Give the backbone structure.
Amino acid sequence: MKRFYVALGKGIVYPLLYLCIQFLFPLVYTSVQATLFLASPEAAGLSAAAAMAQLTHIITGKLMAISLVCSLITIGLYCLTAPMCRRSLREHLWLYPMASQDIVPVLLLGISANLLLSALLEWLPIPAQWMSDYEVSSAWIPQDLTAASFLFVGLAGPVTEELCFRGLLFTRLRQGMPQAAAALISAILFGLAHGNLVWFLYAFPLGLVMVWIFCRFGSVWATMLFHIGFNITGLLIPQESSLILLLLLGCLGTAGCSFWVWKRTENAT
């Protein structure tokens, strides 16, 4: 039991650091921005409601850039923990190399998984209140594809989350508990970190899938590729796409690429 709590303690530090950065930096930025705006001549002639609306518009417009900075800060702090643990960066973050011929199949697996889950979520009987909360949360995400949104959602976000939940959290948890329990805990925390029940519905099973990919390849590079493929597809897929087509392509791609991963890593422990 002592090993369990030691492993849990070592692992939980990293998602807590991740969540602290995600909360504290936007809070500090918003406070500074609000102070500067309210002290500016532009806000002098506005009512309280109008000033708040203008301030919300300014901050919302920079939300992706703020999130990108949060991710970069988190990645930097994770890298700094390597010498503290007396490990190389590769060993600490599980950045072990993977074969070049596996890059495209793993990336395609992430793309296919997005198509499949996008279709399935449309057909699931999700409670109206959950969907309402999801729409409120999604309203903060800019609909236009910008450089900041692409860099954060498509690249920096996946890299940060994979370093946190697979490279650092899962690997520490499995040192003191069965691998299945470590996978379950890390996937639950990954789902909860998304902060919305609808997002949890796909983030939790995705967390389990990415643990499987991580264990097959023994490298966080593999889960980063999968996650990047998944997120970029979500940014680029047209909203009016046929659900039948998404389901068909998603099923075929997921089955084919999963088979590739399984065959390529048959000897994985």
